[in-house]
Amino acid sequence: MISDRIDKLIFINEGVISDYFIVDQNWQILAPLLKDENIYSRWDHSYGVDGVNVIRIALYTRIISELHSILFDNDKKSGSIKNVIVGLQDKGVIKELRKRFCSPSGVNVVGEYSESETQRIIENIQLEDIKRKEEAFDRILPEVITSYENLETSELAVRIKTARDKIYAHKEIRTIDGERKYYDASDLGLQYDDAEQLIGEAKKLIFNANILLTNSSYSLDSFLNHHKKVANEYWAR
Q1: In terms of DSSP H, where are the helices of the chain?
Q2: What are the tens digits of pLDDT across the range 123-145?
Q3: 20 to 30 A from 222, CA-CA: which of 92, 133, 173, 176?
Q4: Which are the contacts of 160, defined by CB distance < 8 A and separation ≥ 6?
Q5: Is the dihedral of CA 75, 77, 78, 82 positive or negative?
Q6: CA 184 – CA 67 distance, rounded (Å)
Q7: Model pTM?
Q8: DSSP per-residue letters across 24-75
Q9: Residue 16 burial by CB count (10 A; 0-12/13-18/19+): exposed, middle or buried?
Q10: How far apart are CA 15 and CA 199, in angstroms?
Q11: Is 136 exposed, middle or buried (0-12, 13-18, 19+ CB in 10 A)?
């Protein structure tokens, strides 16, 4: 049934959102070790430098692996946005979602009006509401699908997929000229900022898909700013 399929898509996307928040929180913890000299320089010229490298590569490989999983995993049983996008291209799913999305909101009319006047006011307000929602749905749906298709075929996505394979193919330490050396982003064919870029591109895609599926939104600033505050307080100590 279409309703069961929509429920499954909503369930999958809820999992994607939860994983996205974890990825963002991991990135906020990692970013100061990459970009804030006042933090990463604390271990300069000490054995602690190796500890910095351990944390960097551990967090970074986890972030890349999770991003790959929630964005590009094409296993039909996986909880990835890929499967949500496939569902959003099904005509039956689109028809039912649009119907749900465009249901008019309840209206309370305040003032002294006759029953017929009240009914007319309600109908006019609801017609405008339906029109606004139809326009929003018809705009967001192709944006979400096109955004995903562009992201999936992008040069960045190709490098992320290759890096993910490398992550599973080797350990985090190698020996060069008799000395131990930790892998870093460049050894995976990436730059550290690639993760930040992909997180940003994934955000709009994932949460616009949620709008289509549930006609609701998250207070993203609250969630994401909390992650930054946690990271700032952690490294401040």
Answers
A1: 2-35, 37-40, 48-72, 81-87, 91-101, 115-152, 155-169, 192-214, 220-236
A2: 777 788 889 999 999 999 999 99
A3: 133
A4: 64, 67, 68, 72, 190, 194, 198
A5: positive
A6: 17
A7: 0.86
A8: HHHHHHHHHHHH-HHHHGGGTTSTHHHHHHHHHHHHHHHHHHHHHHHHH---
A9: buried
A10: 16
A11: middle
Q: Report the alpha-carbon distance of residue 10 to residue 79 in Å, rounded.
A: 11
**CA gap 213, 87 in Å, rounded:** 10
Q: CB-based burial of residue 216 (10 Å sphere; 0-12 exposed, 13-18 middle, 19+ buried)?
A: exposed
With b meaning 16 or more CB within 10 Å and e meaning fewer, what string describes 95-121?
Answer: ebbeebbbeeeeeeeeeeeeeeeeeee
Tokens representing 146 are 């096109």
Which residues are CB-contacts of 183 (< 8 A; sequence separation ≥ 6)? 57, 170, 172, 173, 174
Q: Which of 107, 108, 19 is nearest to 65 (CA)?
A: 19
pLDDT tens digits for 38-86?
998 989 989 888 888 888 888 998 999 999 999 998 888 888 999 999 9
Q: Tokens for 175?
A: 């020996």
4 contacts 95 by C-beta, under 8 angstroms? no
